[in-house]
UniProtKB/TrEMBL annotation:
The chain crosses the membrane at residues 12-31, 69-93, 100-121, 133-152, 177-200, 235-256. It holds the Pfam family BPD_transp_1. This is Carbohydrate ABC transporter permease. PANTHER family: ABC TRANSPORTER PERMEASE PROTEIN MG189-RELATED-RELATED, SN-GLYCEROL-3-PHOSPHATE TRANSPORT SYSTEM PERMEASE PROTEIN UGPE. Residues 65-256 form the ABC transmembrane type-1 domain. Keywords: Cell membrane, Membrane, Transmembrane, Transmembrane helix, Transport. It is a multi-pass membrane protein. It comes from the Bacteria. Belongs to the binding-protein-dependent transport system permease family.
Length: 271
């Protein structure tokens, strides 16, 4: 028994090292002076914090981070509200044609962004929504909806029907059932979906690259792609830029770590 536990912990330690080692390499490389030649994982002789400041300035990350925050702050709540309402309508209210609509959302999970981005560009150009934040926000919300609806539908389907029926017997309307009965017990699922939405929106690269022609208004990952092309030989500067881009995701995950893990494990157990 002890041997099995030791093996499991050993495997977890190995996996943790495999995941954390690249991050440690990026952090250490970013702390070298700009232009330094690196050979693998090396500790800097002189900790150079100015590399981060230089990468921020040369990459124009003030404007890029502003765009990323603006898009993510708009996409996450809008997509979350729509996915929650859709999941509630398809699962609890069982609106007309809910099986067909659900099948359509499941089919949407199979569509990669690379398949539709060109057609999406021409459609949005016809209504003047290219090279604008609104076009990207609407496109990302639509892109994230299939998974969000499937996630919330799976969550609501695991809630006992007696709970909803008891609220209706007490005279609660449908919106009251959702707001006062279901949402308070759905925060783990909602928090998990929020974190996933934020990560996907923040990391969105191809959609922003195609829809936003103005380099000053692109997001941080898009700016990082241009930055790599300009400073491909300066490893410390590239590492610093990469560290700047991934830091918000790490911070958000650490803040919502407990709720995120609860939502994932809850879905795994109930599923």
């Amino acid at each position: 028994m002890r041997g099995g536990v030791s093996i499991r912990y050993g495997v977890l330690v190995v996996l943790a090292v495999m995941v954390l080692l690249p991050f440690a390499g990026i952090i250490l490389a970013a702390l070298h002076p700009p232009g330094a030649q690196l050979n693998g994982l090396s500790i800097p002789e002189r900790w150079s914090w100015e590399t981060l400041a230089l990468a921020w300035e040369r990459g124009n990350f003030t404007a890029l981070m502003r765009s990323s925050v603006l898009i993510s702050v708009c996409v996450v709540p809008l997509a979350l509200v729509l996915a929650t309402l859709a999941g509630y309508g398809l699962t609890v209210l069982k609106v007309w044609g809910h099986k067909t609509v659900t099948a359509g959302f499941v089919l949407g999970l199979t569509l990669p962004i690379e398949l539709i981005v060109v057609a999406l560009y021409f459609n949005l150009r016809e209504v003047g929504l290219t090279n604008s934040y609104l076009g990207i926000i609407l496109a990302e919300v639509a892109l994230f909806m299939p998974f969000g609806v499937y996630w919330m539908r799976s969550h609501f389907s695991n809630i006992p029907e007696e709970l909803v029926e008891a609220a209706r017997i007490d005279g609660a309307r449908d919106i009251v059932v959702l707001a006062r009965v279901l949402l308070p017990i759905s925060w783990p699922a909602i928090t998990t979906l929020s974190v996933l939405y934020f990560m996907w929106s923040w990391n969105q690269f191809l959609l922003v690259l195609v829809m936003m022609q103005d380099p000053e208004r692109r997001t941080a990952p898009g700016g990082l792609g241009l930055f790599v092309g300009q400073y491909s030989t300066d490893i410390p500067l590239l590492s610093a830029a990469g560290l700047i881009v991934i830091t918000p995701i790490v911070v958000v995950y650490l803040i919502f770590q407990r709720s995120f893990v609860n939502g994932i494990t809850q879905g795994a157990i109930k599923g």
